[in-house]
Structures are given as C-alpha cells and as structure tokens.
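Quick review question:
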C-alpha cells in the first residue's frame, strides 16, 4: 500500500460527564490536573490506547492490522518472530556472501544492522500501531530498532478548570466467610470514586507524510484512524467513563506532503469558549461554542469537518 501524500493536523473536542477520563496513579487515581491552573489533563497515551482498542476490535487481528502494544503482550517474543521471519524469507539474507556472513554480527550473537532494518520493516507491515505511532523495539536479544510514527497526539486539556469530586460508595457483599459471620454489625466496605462533574477537553494531533513513507502508513490506515477517533469512546464504556463523547473533529489537510502553514497557525483558527450564563459552572456541551475562522485558511489548506 502506498503511503499518504498529504500532511494533516487535527483538532478534537471530547467531553466527560460524571466520570474520570484519565486517572493519575500518582494521585490515588484522581483525574489528572495541571496543579497551577486546575485544568484537567488527558495523556496522549490514554487516547492512543483507545485507538488501539478500536482497531483491535474492528480488525480482529487481520493481516497488517495487529496491535503491538496490547494487554499482557510479551514484546520480545514479537521481536523474535520478526527476526525469524526475516531470516527465513528475506532475499537480502539469502544473498549475503560467505565473507559477509563471517563478519556478520549474527555469528557472535549480536544484532546485524541489515537484519534489524528488515525486522523493523516487518514490524511496520504487520502492526498498525507501529505503523501509526511508532515504537521503541530495542529490547530483548533480537532487537527491531526504533520507529518514529507519523501520527502523534498532544495532551488533551480541559477548556475550564475542573474541581474533581470524591464520591463515597459502599459494598453490600463480603469476600470471606469470616466477614459474613462477623457479629459486630455492619460489614459493608467503604470506598471512594473520583469524578469530574463536567469538562470539555481539546486535543491537537499531527500526521506527517514524510514519516508515513518510512512506516508505510497508507490511506487505508488514515481512514481507519478517522473511524477510530470518531468511535473510540463508544467502545470504551466503564463505571468511570460512562459518559464520554467526541463532540467535534476538525481536520486540516495540506496540499502536499510538507504543508503550507504551521500547525500552530491552523490551530489558532479554531476558537472555543463559553456561552450562556458565564457565572454558572459548565455542565453540558451546550454551554460552549466552537467556531472556525474559515476565511483565514491559508491557500492550499483544506478544512474537513468530520464531526
């Protein structure tokens, strides 16, 4: 498949109601915050996880669309698989003369640069997230090098400061016979949940055509990315993320692979702010208004409104 030939940037807005969009393990799983402004944060890793889950759900391990970073995956085994496939099938290895084989690092147990390069290519061909996001695959005996992916996301930030709430919960069931036979009275376990009453988040994304050429990120891969961004929250429901939704997805498509304007200039054309009663805390998407200065679009840049 041919790699994409256009540069893209995109702006995505999503919201959460009475949920925790991205818990911070260093803060007892409370919603992530910028401590100086109290704006909510959602990491790029969190969003990429949802994209990976959507691809895995819809493609179901189809050739070329497997997921490298998945739950309990043993990454070094995948590196070994890549090396074995390259050694078995690569014409480059078969064509090496005896002199090269003697000087090859394969003989003394070290990585051969050509084998690593071919293994890296194999990983890009087989794993969607390596092709899209890149990966550091320098672990294990059989290394596959590093890949800088064409698709990158920044941290998402809430438009307004948030005040997380701590909600106390009780458990009616018990876990042991001793607890059940306890005659002291109430055995219910107390616990806490952390929620954001409401927040609208904004995140910026970048897609590089030159980097796509290196990994083979294709138009089909790009279409799948747009699908994942539009639907990933629909398949990521949980007790803490019951009401998360994509609200707006704006894509800037450049006329060529290098682009006609800086990303920050394009992002500046998208404005988002409060509407209605500004004294009341925001509690719905209707409390915000998103506008785009279309008349200021640079020549050669097309705006695609996917949602």
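Suggested answer, residue by residue:
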């Amino acid at each position: 498949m041919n790699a994409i030939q256009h540069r893209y940037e995109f702006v995505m807005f999503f919201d959460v109601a009475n949920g925790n969009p991205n818990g911070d393990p260093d803060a007892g799983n409370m919603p992530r915050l910028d401590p100086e402004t109290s704006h909510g944060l959602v990491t790029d890793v969190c969003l990429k996880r949802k994209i990976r889950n959507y691809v895995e759900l819809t493609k179901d391990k189809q050739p070329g669309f497997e997921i490298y970073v998945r739950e309990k995956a043993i990454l070094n085994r995948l590196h070994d698989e890549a090396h074995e496939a390259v050694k078995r099938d690569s014409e480059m290895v078969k064509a090496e003369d005896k002199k090269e084989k003697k000087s090859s690092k394969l003989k003394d147990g070290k990585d051969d640069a050509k084998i690593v390069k071919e293994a890296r290519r194999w990983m890009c061909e087989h794993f969607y997230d390596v092709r899209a996001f890149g990966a550091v695959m320098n672990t294990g005996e059989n290394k596959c090098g590093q890949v800088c992916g064409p698709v990158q996301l920044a941290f998402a930030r809430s438009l307004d400061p948030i005040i997380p709430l701590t909600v106390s919960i009780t458990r009616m069931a018990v876990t042991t016979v001793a607890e059940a036979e306890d005659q002291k009275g109430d055995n219910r376990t107390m616990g806490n949940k952390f929620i954001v009453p409401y927040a609208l988040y904004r995140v910026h994304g970048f897609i590089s055509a030159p980097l796509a050429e290196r990994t083979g990120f294709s138009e089909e891969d790009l279409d799948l990315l747009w699908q994942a961004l539009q639907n990933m929250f629909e398949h990521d429901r949980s007790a803490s993320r019951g009401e998360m939704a994509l609200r707006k997805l704006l894509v800037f498509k450049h006329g060529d692979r290098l682009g006609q304007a800086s990303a920050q200039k394009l992002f500046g054309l998208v404005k988002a702010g409060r509407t209605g009663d500004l004294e009341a805390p925001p509690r719905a998407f209707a409390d915000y208004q998103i506008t785009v200065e279309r008349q200021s679009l640079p020549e050669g840049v097309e705006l695609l409104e996917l949602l």
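Why it works: Residues 38 and 161 are 5 Å apart (CA to CA). The chain has a mean pLDDT of 89.
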